[in-house]
Amino acid sequence: MNGFRLSRREFLHATAGAASASVIAGPSLFDSEPSYAAEQSSSPSDQVRFGIVGVGMEGSGLLSTAIQLPGVKCVAAADLYDGRHELAKEIAGPQIRTTRKYQELLDAKDIDAILVAVPDHWHKQVVVDALAAGKDVYCEKPMSHNPADGLAMVAAAGKTDRIVQIGAQRTSSVLCAKAHELYAQGAIGDLNLIEATLGRNDPTGAWEYPPPPDLSLQTLDWDTWLGTAPRISFDPLVFARWRCWKEYGTGVAGDLLVHLISGMQRVLGINEVPNRVSSFGGIYRWKDGRNMPDVHPVLFEYSGIPVYMRLSLGCESAEVTRFQGSKGMIELREFSVSYTPQAGVDLSPSYYTASFPARLRDPYVKQWHEEHDPVPGQEPAPETITFNGNDYDDLKPHLWNFFGAVRSRKPVLQDAVFGNNAALACHLANESYFRKSPVYWDASANVIKSIG
Ligand SMILES: NC(=O)c1ccc[n+]([C@@H]2O[C@H](COP(=O)([O-])OP(=O)(O)OC[C@H]3O[C@@H](n4cnc5c(N)ncnc54)[C@H](O)[C@@H]3O)[C@@H](O)[C@H]2O)c1
Fold first, then answer.
1. Do 333 and 442 belong together in one domain?
2. Ligand 1 in contact with 224 (CB < 6 A)?
3. Distance 242 CA to ligand 1 centre (A)
4. Number of structural domains found in the chain
5. Residue 59 CB less than 6 A away from ligand 1
6. Ligand 1 within 6 A of 183 CB?
7. 39-87, pLDDT tens digit by residue?
8. Domain end call among 149, 169, 189
9. Model confidence, pTM
């Protein structure tokens, strides 16, 4: 975990006094860190020099994590709010350059890669500009603010040999890797349902963040912050709580569901848009002027398999994804993955035979036992196997993969196409909610269409 940032999850775990007891100490299958410093040379010649655009809640975590990696150096930070220049220097040192103009980072010859952690409505422009400037790019999730932005980003990535990695970090986690291994080995047999759920019930979890007290038109370039969004007068709440409005954010879908979708794509080894999507919900709990739902259950169909994901800011519930198949279930959680095999056969005479008269039931039951009872002392003892591992929300493995790819020039898993497919699933979920209709992605026309 990074030393600087106390993420929401880390905070909750720390205050609950729970957490890392389950994280394996010392070298093991799930310990990704013991030899990482040795794995990558940090000689000045192959040092990766990066700049960061957006040093807010997430950008500050990315920055403080990235500078812990060997052979990685922050050179400059761009942000429209001056308080975040101060923050960037606190994290990375007073020697880094800071500016309100991200283009200065793109023009700089001493910067190889750009980390992008601006609000969703700015992702496309920064990424397209960074690629045009020849930089490798790590862009936060959801990749796009809308389908058109995503297509423009995929096109821009396709025109260069630059590395593009999207920031749904769990795809680089040891837990998703283990779940993928189990799934690919056929542990659960034929997949027939995926369900996932995530619930919060507190103002911070619902994005009611306190704006920085010194935020003003003097300390923030508000006009540029608005970007492509409609012009409105300076509003500190919009600056801090932009997720609540579709003009800047992508709702619980783009904020949270995208992590579940990206993790699912990683575990299943798929990279595709769902065939159809139906979603429901509303603003039930946080009637604070937001226009995105705070409760948003979504039903997807991926290649014929139903995927039911329930997102809520109205009631706290554990975050879990369950992959269900004919031979059992894989359950993925933040700190663990477990596998529960299922025999898929009757373990006792069918209870339906209780409806038989005794003259029919008794011979059936007798025969059933003769044919199925195990040898005494050799009864099957199925068990759930649980692997405990590093937090799948830890940014370090994902940044590690990104900077490794910048050096090796080898492709990353969560590239622009992967990120776009995951983001599209979220846009479909939002469209279905707003249209009150099932929708699908018409790939020939590149638009979302209603079904029925
Ligand atoms: N991977 C994760 O787990 C995770 C977690 C939180 C947020 N995020 C993503 O990170 C991104 C940023 O979220 P956040 O919570 O840090 O937002 P934030 O509002 O806290 O920070 C965004 C920063 O970007 C700056 N900014 C906006 N437009 C800019 C521009 N054109 N040039 C330079 N700076 C600009 C703002 O001034 C602000 O300081 C979002 O896309 C969000 O979805 C990802």
1. yes
2. yes
3. 10
4. 3
5. yes
6. no
7. 555 555 689 999 999 999 999 999 999 999 999 999 999 999 999 999 9
8. 169
9. 0.92
